[in-house]
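Board notes (copied after class):
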Amino acid sequence: MSEHEQVRVHIVGAATSAAAHGPGQERAPEAFRAHGLLERLTAAGLEVIDHGDVVHFRMEPDPDHPKLQSADRVIEAARTVAGQVQRIAQAEPDARILVLGGDCSIQLGVIAGAKAAAGAPHARVGLAYVDLDCDLTSPQSGNGIADWMGITHLLDAPDADARLASLGGPRPLLTRHTLRLVAADRANAYEQSRIDDLSLTRYLSQQVEEHTADVLAELAAWADGLSLLSVHVDVDVLDQTAFPIAEEQRSDPGLSVAGLGRLVTGLMSHRTARIITICEVNPDRPDDPASAFAELNTMLAAALSARR
């Protein structure tokens, strides 16, 4: 892509809260659009193609399966997202893809679709997972909510559910070499043991906020070895005392909106960056949703228009 060629962005709505502990996130893609996302991206000089919402699921209690609730719906949502990501990435390898979630489990589909599109066995698809949580609980150790098990299944950890871990064919979808946990402050004892056992690379939010340039330099060196970089943004990584929009309500400091913007824009400026997924937005949380979404839309526009 030349320096002056217009960047094309494909928007994929993943309107699902099937893997969550409560409803709300399934309305986030609609809220992003209603509050001017497409107009903001166009104003940033991007060519926008909106594929609409490819999946629609609202969280429903599933007491009959306490270890992994709503597994069939979670799998269907992830597979649908995977198929759409694969089609776009194969048709336009240089275009960028913005996936509007939805809960975090859709990242399984994003990575599965990206890997399927890459095709070649040696293709290295990597994920920068920006999330206050490490999402390393499992059907054996957690509370049954798949939203908090994403990394477990991407890595095909020993306690993963085979149905979720095998969405992309050969397992695992990721390894410790193709994953970075970024601003991941929260890990219970079980998750910390998994981080240690799997030797995962992890950056804490204070490190990201105060030493952004150093963190980005390390992440860029890592991404140099990838064929495609996907960036996951869970908005609960934000300081919720200042920016309450995430589904999960936390008192942890997290990142500032400006700090998250610098991080995501820096990641998306890497030559391998193709996909950004934003999750865990609950439109009911902010007192002033128009202002809150305007800030997120501006952040996404800056990241997606970042020159490689």
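Comment from the instructor: The chain has one domain: 8-304. The chain has a mean pLDDT of 93.
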